[in-house]
Amino acid sequence: MKFLICLLLLLTFLLPALAQQSPVPIEKEPLHLLKFENQYVRAFDVFIPTGKTTLFHIHKHDGVGVRLTDSRIRDEPQEGAPEEISFKRGEVSFAYRPNPLTHRVSNIGSTDFRNIFIETLPSAGASTDAKPLENVVGYTLALENNRVRVLRLVLAPGESTEMRAHALRTLSIVVSKGKIVVETPDKKPQTKKFKPGDTEWHEVGTKYSLKNVGSAAFEIVDIELK
After folding, report:
1. Residue 126 pLDDT > 70, yes or no?
2. pTM
3. Domain containing residue 99: CATH number
């Protein structure tokens, strides 16, 4: 009887730990919230409070990360040595996934970790060539490779962009909150309030201009799919 009681107590402690080691698909990881999805991309809002750790989860696709907070994490692959990494708000990175990655992430810093992770799915691509960067007034190049081009726009209060037509399918990620007037050729200007993590999808040919009518700088990142 004592042996059975000890065995039950041991299983009580071991089973949750063993279950946590079983990797889940990224969309099943509780701290990865699916924000947007179409046939080209999936965007996850990853929010890890200070001191918290994700489950082991699986990344199968290449993707772009857009950091929304200053933070420090421990990245622990299921096979391999853990790595401690510091991020700055607005930082952008790209992860190639020739093979699936299984890992978990711990927030070891003093601030919450928030990251918008955009998977580029196998069907991602555009029907036209990319518009030369030098012709996209107001935007700067943040990252470019054979899969994506990432542009950053920072508008000070009162600043605006020229009317821009997207030559590539694009997912926009808002980095900082703002009050913006959006003007398109066929509609009346609209005033929109954006908050960090908001996403907007633009098909090829979408045309608009932006004006910051708020009291603080407005930052947005455009992820163009090649």
Report:
1. no
2. 0.86
3. 2.60.120.10
